[in-house]
Amino acid sequence: MSSVRVLVGTKKGAFILTADGKREQWEISGPHFAGWEMYHLKGSPADADRIYASQTSGWFGQIIQRSDDGGKTWSIPGGGQAPVPGEFPKGASNKFVYEGEVTTHKWYDGTQHPWEFKRVWHLEPSLTDPDTVFAGVEDAAMFKTTDGGATWRELPGLRGAKGKLWQPGAGGMCLHTIVLDPTNAQRIYAAISAAGAFRTDDGGATWKPINRGLKSAYELPDPDADVGHCVHRIAMHPSRPGVLFMQKHWDVMRSDNAGDNWHEVSGNLPTDFGFVIDVHAHEPETIYVVPIKSDHLHYPPDGALRVYRSRSGGNEWEPLTKGLPQTDCYVNVLRNAMAIDKLDSCGVYFGTTGGQVYASSDAGDSWAPIVRDLPAVLSVEVQTLA
Amino acid sequence: MTIRVVLPAHLRTLARVGTGEVELEVEGPITQRSILDALEAKYPMLQGTLRDHTTKQRRAFVRFFACQEDWSHESMDAPLPDAVASGAEPFLVVGAIAGGRRHSSSPDESS
Question: The complex's ipTM?
Answer without folding.
Answer: 0.70
